[in-house]
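Sorry to interrupt, but I need a hand with the structure work. I would like you to pick a protein and set down its sequence and fold. Please put the record directly below this note.
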Amino acid sequence: MQPVPVEPEITVVIPTFDRATVVLAAVQSVLDQAGPRMEVIVVDDGSGDDTVTRVASHPDPRVRLVQAAHGGVCAARNLGAAAARAPWLTFLDSDDVAAEGWLAALCEPLARGAELVTCGAELRYPDGRVRIVRPVPLGPAFGSITAHFLAGTFAMPTELFRAVGGYRVGLTYGENTELGMRLGTEARARGARVAADPRPLVQVSAVVREYVARRYFESGVAVLRDTGELLAKDPRLHASYLAITGVAASRDGRVRDAHRLLWRAWRVEPRNWKHVARLARSCVPVRALR
């Protein structure tokens, strides 16, 4: 049994909710990493299965369990980050698995002074499809960095995560992208180096979630409200968020909100006639489209 390191170099936060059958595989994929000293904080988000029992009985002292009432993945990640003891921080979802070399690839650039490090991922779908995603050049809303933001694909100083305010609690989609905008912008403002590794170093369980219009609408409104200043730096991305939120409003029967948001999308990106088509479609009663 490896003794608890006095000063772990990196904290890996794994939030989980009712995933007792897979969470230990995620934990073990981190413990198997060679190189950096780590601690693994599993945040149980009010599971109703035996997740707590399984994690609490893990024999490796590098694994810590934090329990919380069910508050969603963003709140769980923030809770884990608040408990972190290491100077560097990353996240991994409880149904994902880190590949060999993942932690070293994230930590080595941080040790050389990078403020933000990202890598690629292998998305595995239930039907057997596999898709590779890699860091790509992002626009001014992200500080014009090359990166990819998905749990498991980015690491940063713990202080940077806390400085930008962590995850936006309550978001039910796009929470990593929204955080990425603030992280990239702050890293650039500090004049810091951002490193990107194109290798797919984490295997992501790409579950296709049910589309719930109200959740998309509420999350979109929150991003537009709280991160609108950054979105305004990139008209195309800004218009995309307005359009996604407007379509969700329309599908949820919020006609006035849909018109307002889709009109704004067209005003922000007037050459994209898809916004006009969406605006026109939103004027048709939902019953007539069925």
